[in-house]
Amino acid sequence: MSKDCILCGKCLEVCPLLRATGREELSPRAKADLVRLLDGDGGELREANVARLASLCLGCKRCRAVCSQDVDVPGLVAMLRAAHPDFKQWLWKTWLSHAGTLWSAGSTAAGLIPERFRPEKFGPMLKMLAGLKGGPGLTPFLSPQKFPDTSRGEKMLLFAGCTATHVQGRWLMAALRLLDGLGIEVLPGDFGCCGASLEAGGCLDEAKAMAKHNLAVWRAAGRPKVAVFCASCRAGLLGYSDCRDEEECLLWRKSILPLSEVVKNTEFMIFDNAPEKLGYHHPCHAGDGDPDFGFLSAVLGERLAAPSGRECCGFGGLLRLAAPEVAEDVNRRCWDALTGPEVIVTGCSACVAQLAATAPEGTAVGHWLELIG
User: Is the whole model's pTM more than 0.85, yes or no?
Assistant: First the structure.
């Protein structure tokens, strides 16, 4: 696949990592060229250098979206990471595979470390871990007043994702209230992690096992529609390819719906405590059509302000562990674009965690579901 790269440079225009660092050796084009070199002799490349370059990718997939040759550089990086496992990858795999037992305890432990004792390099990461439990969250100011009848009586599964399942239960409860108001019956389904972050981190066997489990849950429920309220989870689910056949893969992709699209025709009342301006962060994995932004724009009108959507929050999965200083460069550019409104909302659980941990003093960050009371 790396041989398909024609070095046109389209990826250079959209890569947040290149934009933040100015280092073209970190660009998607350079990584594709690296993999091409490794497919040949590659003997002159030191393993440590290969592993280091493999760790420096946000996994945002903006490069693939604009590639005329459909070169999947994040996929190539995942394969490089799989071929060069290290302690950071093991830690990432353990953290995601055991979210139910580790996340709450890890958040509590991180919160006990005084800020003055947090290593400068990992300070933002520890703050992000401490904030996993969420605290009081954003103050709600939207109340659904009239639900459309278009979905009444329908049966759906709800894919909550790891964050809502293990540490942000109020997101899950808000989603369930909306679906109940629409008259939708939420079917029981024991979904696991979407597996996207595991795959991006090079934990390919674990990601495949997660996909296999989630597809089995969907089949057992009768292959209904699946509502999702995390943009990254949705992108991960849409990327599943291990179906029984192409027809089932097509049905699976059609079944994955953003929750914001399901509720988009609901009428809301805006309370007096609503801020005059809210900022919106476009998650990388939401794509150009970002349905959450479309939904919120229809509800909030001119109250909602959003930058161009070019900037990444800087979370980057394994990159956050492997090169926190690079992640911070990306994050600073994101906040330069967002600065202004005192409330920032988004539709991705990883973006919420990253932005909440790095927000300027006096700025609150949350998932858009927190706005609904």
Answer: yes
